[in-house]
C-alpha cells in the first residue's frame, strides 16, 4: 500500500498537469485531460518500480509543458507548438499496447475537431 507522501505527490502532479492543460488550445486540453485522467486511473494499482517510472515520465511531461506554456505566454497565443519529439530509443522501450495508445493519441490530436471550434458571433 502506498504511503501518504506518495499519494500526496501523485495528486499534486495530477492537479498541476490539469492546471497546465488550461493553457492549451481547447481541443488539445479536452484530449489531454481525458488521457491524463485515464492514465492516472489505470496506474493506481501498479508495482513500486512501475509507479516510479510512471511518475518520472509524467514529471518530464509536466516540465516540458510548463516550459512551453511559459514560452507561449511570452510570445502570445498560437505562436508556440505544443508537444515534443519522441526519440526512437524511448519508442523502442514501449510495449505494443503503449504504441497503440500513442498512435490513437496522434490520430486524435491531429484531426480537425469541429466540436471545439469556437468562433465569435458574426452579427
TrEMBL record:
GO terms under biological process: mitochondrial respiratory chain complex II assembly; succinate metabolic process
Keywords on record: Chaperone, Mitochondrion, Transit peptide
GO cellular component: mitochondrial intermembrane space; mitochondrial matrix
InterPro entries tied to this protein: SDHAF3/Sdh7
Family matches, as CDD domains: Complex1_LYR_SDHAF3_LYRM10 (cd20270)
Protein's UniProt keywords contain Chaperone: yes
Top-level taxon of origin: Eukaryota
Compartments where found: Mitochondrion matrix
Membership in a protein family: Belongs to the complex I LYR family. SDHAF3 subfamily.
PANTHER family membership: DC11 ACN9 HOMOLOG, SUCCINATE DEHYDROGENASE ASSEMBLY FACTOR 3, MITOCHONDRIAL
Function: Plays an essential role in the assembly of succinate dehydrogenase (SDH), an enzyme complex (also referred to as respiratory complex II) that is a component of both the tricarboxylic acid (TCA) cycle and the mitochondrial electron transport chain, and which couples the oxidation of succinate to fumarate with the reduction of ubiquinone (coenzyme Q) to ubiquinol. Promotes maturation of the iron-sulfur protein subunit of the SDH catalytic dimer, protecting it from the deleterious effects of oxidants. May act together with SDHAF1.
Quaternary structure (record): Interacts with the iron-sulfur protein subunit within the SDH catalytic dimer.
Record-given protein name: Succinate dehydrogenase assembly factor 3
Source species of the chain: Oryzias sinensis (Chinese medaka)
Amino acid at each position: 500500500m502506498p504511503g501518504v507522501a506518495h499519494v500526496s505527490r501523485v495528486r499534486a502532479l495530477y492537479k498541476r498537469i490539469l492546471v497546465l492543460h488550461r493553457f492549451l488550445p481547447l481541443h488539445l486540453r479536452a484530449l489531454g485531460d481525458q488521457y491524463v485522467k485515464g492514465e492516472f486511473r489505470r496506474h493506481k494499482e501498479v508495482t513500486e518500480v512501475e509507479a516510479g517510472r510512471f511518475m518520472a515520465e509524467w514529471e518530464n511531461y509536466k516540465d516540458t509543458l510548463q516550459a512551453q506554456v511559459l514560452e507561449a505566454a511570452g510570445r502570445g497565443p498560437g505562436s508556440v507548438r505544443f508537444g515534443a519529439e519522441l526519440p526512437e530509443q524511448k519508442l523502442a522501450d514501449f510495449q505494443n499496447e503503449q504504441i497503440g495508445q500513442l498512435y490513437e493519441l496522434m490520430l486524435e490530436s491531429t484531426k480537425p475537431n469541429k466540436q471545439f471550434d469556437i468562433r465569435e458571433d458574426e452579427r
